[in-house]
Amino acid sequence: MTQDHAPFYEAARLLKKGKSLDGVIQTKTLCFMCKQPAKKPVQCSACKGVKYCGAACAKAEWNNRHVMGGVIRGHKEECAKMKEFMLEAQDVRDILLQFPWGRFESDGRFYLELALAMRNLLGKGQSYGWWTQEDQARAGARVAPLFEQTSGGWGSSLLKPAHLGEKDGWKLPIDEIPWLKFDDVKPPPFPPNFEQNWTSYYGWRGLPLKSPAALLLHWPLTVYRLLYLLGFASPQATADKRRTIVIHYVGAEIELNFLPIFGELTLFFPNTDLELVMFGPRAFELVTTSRPPSLSAKPYPYLYRAPEKCGSGSIRIRLADSGPFWDASCAKTPPDAIVGLNAGMSSYEPWFTVFAASRALSIPFAVTDYTRQSFLEDENSFHMMGLRAVNGTELGQLLGTKGISVMAKALEKPCECALNPFMRPGPKTPLLINLPAGINGFTCVVTPRALPP
């Protein structure tokens, strides 16, 4: 247990004794304007989506501000849209409240660290299995995807010769584990049949709602949701006509800590061979520096095939060795789909190439992000992203005049955004905004799949 985790274990101890948590967990809110801590924050009375340290900052941030290089949009232009986004606040809360361990503290916030501490799952290192946390700033969510050349210590378990077994990885009671080895446990009914929500999925999977497994399962379930929205979930393949789906998974970071839970995807895609290629600085670092017998030195660090009674789906995960980022070379042999989780497309330039290639070459592409506001900012930046991705670049040379013209016309196409029913349960604690937010909170189909006639 690190010093960062100590307050949450103390809070868990008090909760188990039925005592108050007042003052045990220190929280802060930053002013949306000056980005300084707000001791007594005031929120916009119209949308209730942003908070300020006082009236002066609220007034200063209301109108557009001219700065060197452009204009910063004032809250006046976004207030109405934020008010609309706030309508989903209860929907985000309700996703957590499906679970008996789902709770909001007196400040209205959900603390992932506290939920884990209640089950003695909060900590760093192999003794915490697949729940191992990075530094507190990174715990439970990615930070600056695709931005840093090296991202933390994610995937250190891939330097070992073998994965943890399911019992040691999940660190949960036997009946709360979503087993993929069905020698001694009953497999879920086949074919898969559940509604698109956690309660129905848990029922199909035979898990009690007291299991916190969703706090990790939201990663593979969100990939499934994106593939579902792209049209890959149906029609299902048959035993005599298997199919292969190659997926480029862009921006992998914390996911490198628990590759085996992505075996869950095989249960949703019977008679299908999934190949998941993970891109990111840390994935590239691992695959190019590791030596045998490390898992990351293998062509496929993770392989799994579901038993015949579960549909015989298979998955193999590869760490991309072409570079730390998805680039034009990846477009020469396009995958069947591209996905990115908690992407922040318009915030990180490496995403521009992914976006432009998907629009120019009609590569199915879907992402998640924390808020709907993020997708609005992305759509407002599409023209800038597309032009910068092809102007004097390798991708521009690959596409040529015709391809760039196709991309330019496709920039006008809107995205399909929605609340993700398989988001990580529990709203993401925001520092600057009060909008409904969650890890993998909202989905966006950036480039839809062109279905055959």
UniProtKB/TrEMBL annotation:
The keyword Zinc-finger applies. One of its GO terms (molecular function) is zinc ion binding. Pfam families: MSS51_C, zf-MYND. Keywords: Metal-binding, Zinc, Zinc-finger. Gene3D superfamilies: 6.10.140.2220. It comes from the Eukaryota. InterPro entries: Mss51-like_C (IPR046824), Znf_MYND (IPR002893). This is MYND-type domain-containing protein. It comes from Rickenella mellea.
